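re: ur question from yesterday

yeah so i grabbed the chain u mentioned. its 173 aa long if i counted rite. heres the sequnce exactly as i have it in my notes:
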Amino acid sequence: MKTPTATKKPVKKYGPGEYKPDTEYKRIEDLPKARVIKENRNETERPCPSCGQSAKREHVYQRQLHEVGDLVSGRPVELHFTYSQHHCQKCNRYFMTDLSDVAAPGSHYTHRVVALAVRVVVEDGLAYRNASWHLWRDHRVFVPFATIQNWVEAGGKKGKRTLGKRLSGVGAG
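ran it thru and got these structure tokens back, copy pasting raw so excuse formatting
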């Protein structure tokens, strides 16, 4: 007596040079959830950058940054920093824990994302909108095209003032 056997469909494996289409997302809820990496830079005391005196912690803050995504899982990566604000009693100065090694002050993106976005436009010659799509498709980090344009026009730097004033510098010279 024969038993019915279920026919298994072979699983398609993609090798080098084979085309693997990107997933199409129709709703925001369908986007892959970000992988969160938490880092703690919260200290009870730090030396004052002005006078060197030990300064006690006043407040604790959190900052979220977008990083280049995880290419294996296809998920975006977010860095969550917990950092502290300190107050020096000697010189009456408030200062934050330094996060400039990871991102520019006020930025939502790491230095790595900024450098990658500027390089894609400048070296590869992609248009801003195409660069924004390229960053999402290949690196799983979403950067609006206008933000990329601002970075490229500023030379990849954030917060620098042109001519020492709040002027755009366009047409100057």
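noticed a couple things. The chain has a mean pLDDT of 83. also The longest helix spans residues 111-122.
anyway ttyl
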